[in-house]
Predict the 3D structure of the following.
Amino acid sequence: MEKLHIPVLLSEVLATLEPHPGESYLDLTAGYGGHASKILDVTQQYKNAVLVDRDEFAVSYLKQEFPSSVTIMNTDFYNAVLQLFKCGKTFDLILADFGVSSPQLDMEERGFSFKYDAPLDMRMDRRQKTTAADIINKYSERELAELFVKYGEEQKGSAAMFARVIVHNRPITTTKQLADLIQTRIHGYFKHHPATKVFQAVRIEVNQELEQIKNTLPLLPKLLNTGGRVGVITFHSLEDRLVKDFFKESASLGEESPLSIVTKKPIVAGPQELVINPRARSAKLRVAKKRY
């Protein structure tokens, strides 16, 4: 499974979640099963395991690789949590990895990466209607600029410039068109491609990623058994801030707190992992434990 997608912070996840034989497991962003396979190797509790992903390619792979006793849900993690909560399900272990999977980035036709010339898509769930092309071609100049600042953490001046050039050159239908337009406005040396933040912002908007996280986090303690552990992996500061603030708030009531924080600081990838998997460089893991 690691050949398709190398799971980030795998040893750290195992060390902090501390799976034990017989424990139930919920993976809210199972992807291609890298984390799930190792955790289930320990728990051996397939019947009470639930793997969730909204990408049909990932779900198809999971169904082939895992026993039929494992429940696999093809939906986004917020709707999965709602369904599981309504059914009264609880778990000993919960993991959410909010990153884009390597296959999504590497499949040209998915339109996630500016490395390829592909249709502007970026949908994690291709059943939804809104694509990146819809946002780039239909949002106003002001809406685009605000989007690049809010979700791309782009400087206001740069965001306004990028929004202006996009609006003046529409329609834009491919990743290369968008990336090239932005690159022509930036001169000199740059460490990362100048379109990186714009692509991040558009992807977050297409998939409503931060709204999903905001809505999901408050429900997680209700899905945990007493003594259960929840781990969350984020890949940029907007996500990490949401998780950090939620854990801090949930642990701030002393004995009445539903959660206690296991990782006082976020765990990041070590140099050995970064050599094998450079995409892990921005990953941060935070873990909390259910008190009661």
Q: What stands out?
A: The mean pLDDT is 93. The domain at 10-103+210-290 is CATH 3.40.50.150 (Rossmann fold).
